[in-house]
Predict the structure of Addiction module antidote protein HigA family.
Amino acid sequence: MLKLKGELTGFWSVAVNGNWQSFFVLTDVMLSLSTILIITEERFSMRMYNPPHPGELLREDVLPSLGFKIAALAPVLYISREMLSRVCNARSAISPDLAVRLERAGIGKARHWLAMQSTYDLWQAEHREQPDIKPIANVA
């Protein structure tokens, strides 16, 4: 973990994978997580290599930082232990509802969780076999 300075004084940073970085704010009550995508000038040409499933970030970084186990966090979010386990083990996606619940619990922003899920899903789709689609000719 790296203690940040300047405008981000009071924040801590942890590199996660590729272009993803987690920023933490330590408080007396709870650890607040804000995960953002670091965007570079080459953002349109630079692709993340095999981005992590956001559930892995939740399991490997967030839960230990909060001192929670899956079984303890699930009721806080009003979801089943099984559902949270599937997400944390990359077998289910983070849904918009779960993203909102995480945000309301003070665990990051819903849009960041959904952006990570979307990035993961798109990379997976781009690397699966797809049918040979031909471009649609301009119709004028």
Residues 110-126 form the longest helix (17 residues). Helices lie at 54-66, 70-77, 81-88, 96-104, 110-126.
